[in-house]
């Protein structure tokens, strides 16, 4: 893996340095100072929440376990890493930096947070300090200048070849773990058992995943962010929805699959239709495609899926216009992904900020931009049987155009979501997720 990354890293670094120079010039700053951050403490406790390094820090180097460390970029100078390696026999100190990236940094090892701060350009300089506003490290208070952050966030949408390679790796780890989870489902495991099989195959602990895994059997598939994990298996496992990702050097994958148990052919047929639709949307991840238009298109295609399976009798147009499809598909088609599972700048108008609004009536869409080469987005249509939303349809004038008996047939299966991570290129899209499954 490192073999592939090493030759790509110098160009990645050059791109980030160029972007940092521009961001500083736009904001009127001389130094870009980026905190890795520190793990937040628990209220009235001596314990901490798991440490997650700032995405700005992880953008520069594959160092995910470096609490209290800093990056300093000053135009025209070698980029600096102030690396905190405490003298401490209570914890494992972060390993001394090594690997393909270290030669690109001027590295200073320090032993305390105060020593680290003493290494940074002082408060009297024109410095942009990119860090969480809380907790504040004395002498290195964050200012997160808007012009600098806007510029950096906008350009994070365009992944370098190095970043894409890490995202392919994250997809491969995720695909491998998804296979193990499917097997655990077929073996009759509980939700917790399936999740443990997933973690074992990913070689990860929960805190290392890019988001909390969703592992739902039967009706639980209808809870969009179900993260409960029943300890006991249900009497019968009819269906299984798993939305789980993996990390590679701080880059995320975000993958959802839905399975029917053997013999549940009607639900399997509905899964197949959603999958065919999903692959059609993936094929439209092309330069110049408006993402919100793709989301609206998905509503029309899913309306036809509902019609074909006898769930609704109205036209696709009226199903979309009346909000019927929104009851079955109540989330966005997808979102940008990268250093964060829901990556930044999904709504950003330009490198100097601004926001592109969502289409009216689609409050959960997380991406309103036009696709360009180097962007990676998820494509994750779904169909769910959510009592709360279906109940709202029952009193509507068009309720008679919904086949409620059919709805009841599908309710015990919860729902369906199928999610791939897809890169927009100059030509055909690259489906990181399907490629990763195909390599298994
Ligand atoms: N796993 C969260 C999402 O799919 O957006
Ligand atoms: Mn997603
Ligand atoms: Mn997901």
Report on this model:
By secondary structure, this protein is an alpha+beta fold. The chain has 2 domains: about 1-155, Creatine Amidinohydrolase, Chain A, domain 1 (3-Layer(aba) Sandwich); about 160-440, Alpha-Beta Complex (Creatine Amidinohydrolase), CATH 3.90.230.10. About 35% of the residues lie in helices and about 15% in strands. It contains 14 helices and 17 strands. Strands 4-3-2-1-5 form a 5-stranded mixed beta sheet. A 3-stranded antiparallel beta sheet has the order 6-7-10. The chain has a 3-stranded antiparallel beta sheet with strand order 13-16-17. The longest helix has 26 residues, at about 160-185. The radius of gyration is 24 Å and the shape is globular. The protein starts with a helix and ends with a helix. The mean pLDDT is about 95. Bound molecules: glycine and manganese (II) ion (2 copies).
Per DSSP, the total helix count is: 14
Question: Strand content of the residues, in percent?
Answer: 15-25%
Per the CATH scheme, the topology name of the largest domain is Creatine Amidinohydrolase
Number of strands: 17
**What radius of gyration results from the CA coordinates?**
24 Å
Helix content: 25-40%
What ligand molecules are bound, each kind once?
glycine, manganese (II) ion
- The gross shape turns out to be globular
What structural class do helix, strand and pairing data support? alpha+beta
Described by strand count, sense and barrel closure, the largest sheet is: 5 strands, mixed
Stretches where pLDDT falls below 50 for ≥5 residues? none
Neighbour order of strands in the largest sheet: 4-3-2-1-5
In round numbers, the mean pLDDT is 97
The CATH homologous superfamily of the largest domain is named Creatinase/methionine aminopeptidase superfamily
